[in-house]
Amino acid sequence: MMGNGGRGLLALGVAAVGALGLTACGSDSAGTGSGATISVVASTNVYGDIATQVGGDAIDVTAVIDGASQDPHSFEADTRTQLAVSKADLLIENGGGYDDFMDQLMKTANSSAPVINAVEVSGLESSADGGEFNEHVWYDLPTVRKVADTIAAGLSKAAPERAAEFTANAKAFDGKLTALIELEKTAKAAHEGEGTAITEPVPLYLLNAMGLVNKTPPAFSEAVEEGTEIPAAVMNEALGIFSGGQVKVFVYNEQTTSPETAKLLAQAKGDGVATVGVTETLPAGKDYVAWMKANVEAVTSALG
Predict the structure, then answer these.
(1) 21 to each of 9, 25, 62, 68, how far by Cα in Å?
(2) Residue 237: its pLDDT value, please?
(3) Which site among 47, 216, 236, 280 is 20 to 30 Å from 289 CA-CA?
């Protein structure tokens, strides 16, 4: 889903995280060389899992949004969450307006811990060319690789004695991402140029990497993201894209539903178009790599 496009004032890019040490906010500073666990707070369980892949048992991760029932756009932090942020040694947010609650949490908690902002790390926003920016960068595997490497750099500043471990973990994670990217390339070789439709652009980076072309009327997906009324003409245009054979697979966000998105899903099924549901947050029982692999394989299978 999309936020207001705001920027976290405390966000640091790759260079900044590499150049600055972590400022511990709690009494158990991980940067003291005492061997204390590094406290990491991530805006969602997606980034929490990526941090865990890199940090292993050296870190303690709190994911603010850790389930499908929580909406980052209406999230209200409790005292426990504010306390976690105040004591964090490293903070991770998506940015791009997706999880603005993190900036408010940092301000309220008076946190001075470094922040990794995935949108800033990605560099993708600068290539939007004035168009609507898709902030769902965790569906972009090259971005996730950059984020993992940035986390490794940040953790290494906090615990230099374990830097080699963090670097090795990030390298192993990068290797798993490379395997996923190869799956995307294989799908692209077989299906490049084929049409897809979406409810909103949550999975669009992945679909584009697989060579698929989004046929959804922009006004439809924008209205779904913003939660605004969908004009009748736009709704009719969206419903009509499935009957002409231009769409091979309809990929919808399972976590954001409305009568309009349900109607579009029913239309796709009625017209014999394959459908695949995806989520914004990490499903229970899966890590990031397993989750994305399942998404790629589901779309590939739907394409036939």
Answers:
(1) 18, 13, 20, 34
(2) 96
(3) 216
pLDDT-above-70 percentage for the chain: 84
Predicted confidence at residue 79, as pLDDT, reads 84
* Residue 52 sits in the same domain as residue 154: yes
In the chain, what is the greatest distance between 2 CA atoms, to the nearest angstrom? 65
Rounded distance between C-alpha atoms, residue 36 and residue 59, angstroms = 9
The two three-digit tokens of residue 290, written as one number: 């397993």
Number of domains comprising the chain: 2
- Determine, yes or no, domain membership for 3: no
Tell me the one-letter amino acid at 30: A
pLDDT digits (tens, 9 = 90+) for 65-122: 987 666 665 667 778 899 999 999 999 999 999 999 999 999 999 999 999 999 999 9
E strands present in the chain: 11-12, 38-44, 59-65, 90-93, 115-117, 195-198, 213-214, 249-253, 274-278
Residue 94's alpha-carbon distances to 2, 76, 106, 265, 297, in angstroms, are 11, 17, 14, 28, 25
How does DSSP classify residue 197?
Answer: E
**84 Cβ contact list (under 8 Å, min separation 6):** 39, 41, 62
Q: Domain containing 149: what range?
A: 11-181
- 3-state secondary structure at position 289: helix
Q: Identify the pLDDT of residue 56.
A: 98
Going by the DSSP 8-state scheme, the letter that residue 56 receives in this structure is G
pTM summary value: 0.87
Q: Which residue, of 130, 161, 181, is where some domain finishes?
A: 181
Amino acid letter at 46? V
Q: Are residues 40 and 171 in the same domain?
A: yes
What is the pLDDT, as a whole number, of residue 128? 64
In the numeric block, the tokens 């306390």 are attached to 83
| Token representation of residue 193 | 């140029």
